[in-house]
């Protein structure tokens, strides 16, 4: 097939059904021989296996299913789902996300028209957890959205200036499978939850062509961060810091590429929002001490660290709650 839709999953049966339905309803006579679904299951303890067997019986396209003997972690699952695929390109899809109507035909058309492009990315809609409400407004507006058109990046610097904040979210990645498998040195980032970022950054460094498709092709189910639920606030914060260390590993600490990624992260309100979120939840001082220790080596020379992040850590939690009470009437 031309395209493998690759879904890593763990205990997401209640959401996986929506993802599979969003794919299968788009399959028709013209595209059914071009698409397959691949699922790597991290030893789920819910009814994921039974659900997939049910879909395998009724799906008009192949569903390849692999089940790990034990939970190997998210990174291993990302690697495994691409490994079991047969497609020329792989579309990574979070198991709680959906593909928007027309998304599959759009990606197939783009691949067929742009055989020299190794990586495609695109925009997303944001949904409520139950998929009832849809919008595009985001706290951190993707810079690619500002392009306002389909665009093939001319070089890696331009690519990173616009897309460096996109790659953490797997569902906006379509990548040439052979290119993905050619990347070496990712082993040290297994356990970071961002092994795929290392692979994408490595391909960008090597000169792979990247195209932004100016369409909303996936739907992201918000308020459903599995890493936050499983790891807690501090370890989830650490995952985002890995973004910078991966860029350092791939591009080098003195590179312009590294600086672009470093600046992108500290300016993301979603990143410093983890500190304010911890304040509202009343987390102990240990969270902020550890956060300071993690951020200081990277950002000690960055004004925003001292003028914004440090004050956010120092201000007592009751001040945050008081401000929220004044604004929203909720303590």
From TrEMBL:
InterPro entries: Glyco_trans_2-like, Nucleotide-diphossugar_trans. The chain crosses the membrane at residues 305-323. Residues 4-157 form the Glycosyltransferase 2-like domain. Keywords: Membrane, Transferase, Transmembrane, Transmembrane helix. It comes from the Archaea. One of its GO terms (molecular function) is hexosyltransferase activity. Pfam families: Glycos_transf_2. This is Glycosyl transferase family protein.
